[in-house]
Amino acid sequence: MEINPFKFASLLFSYLRKEDIDEKKQKEIEDLMNGSSEIKTLHDELCDKEKISAQLSIINSFNTQPAYEKVTRPVRLRRRLTLALRVASIVAILAIAIPLIYIQTRGSKYNADLIGSGKTVLKTSDGNIVSLDTISSIAYLNDLSVHNEKGILTITEYEKSAKKRSNGNNIIEVPYKGTYKVILPDGTKVNLNSGSTLEFPDHFLASERVVKLKGEAFFDVVKADGKPFIVNTNNMSIRVLGTKFNVKSYDNESNSYTTLLEGKIELSTDKELKSIQPGEQVVLNKKTEALDIKEIDTEPIVAWVDNMFYFDRTPLDDVMRSLSRWYGVDIRYADDDPNVKKIVYSGKVRMYTHPEDILRKFEKTGGLKFELTDNTITISKKQ
């Protein structure tokens, strides 16, 4: 089978970088490797850090003039085409391998296979602790039945339960390096971001539906007349009937953010009560409990639901917290200058990309240097 070198180079690069490629392309690459010892050897060599370093030294020692003279020397057309194809293959592979080589030779031992691998846990009201990746079909837990399919956990009340037990609370915990989608017993859809927990009862009361959130979640609430849906955080209560909104309320951040996409919501603290319209965001200062309303572009706020980082003049400190939660890395600032954390960054990139990709983009747009070593990102000023 004749292989287009440029097409294959692009496919192999995506495969090595763990990028989002469909099953058909992934199988195509694996079939090529299984059917060709040369391609399998190339794959293994591109994953071999020591061999790559040695090859870089060889490349740097090349005298390109003799090679150029050989390529341009008059020969039969067929031989020239064959040579051109070989050169194109080498150029294509080198062109796409260089970024990979750069990542592998910087000294980082970050395991990109763990991106998005966080294991979400369900703690039921009767004391059971279940890792949700082990549930592939319907399971019965206390008064609940849970069904996990295509990464979505559907929770319903177990109708065959002979007697309803006391109405205890269940907790879903999403660790760093993971997100999770949940459908609650009333049909409300909840996307949970990294480092978040959602607490909900075995049975919603007849008068209201109450959940408690720590972290970040996007809610698509099913309307139920006379039965409001209430999201409680440590500092605020959000009351809705049927709407779509995003809540970000991490314990290690000084503000909470509630952003409305559809419908209407009412927010309250011990000191204030406010309502907002679609396209507005409420910022809660946790220290003063003051609520500040502003108009906002909602797209960057909810991009994480589609597995995207979308930074829009976002302070570096906020950017790094997002990366820390998703990639499970520590953040270290080499300089004491507080203004470094206030530098703003903008850009849109897939969450499943290697963190080095994002850091290199940041380095091109500012005066800072980012170094990923093992599981720590060190930030310093460029010399």
Automatic annotation (TrEMBL):
Membrane-traversing stretches: 83-103
Organism: Dysgonomonas termitidis
One Pfam family here: FecR_C
Source taxon at top rank: Bacteria
Domain FecR protein: 177-266
UniProt KW keywords: Membrane, Transmembrane, Transmembrane helix
Protein name from the UniProt record: FecR family protein
Domain annotation Protein FecR C-terminal: ranges: 309-379
Record flagged with keyword Ribosomal protein: no
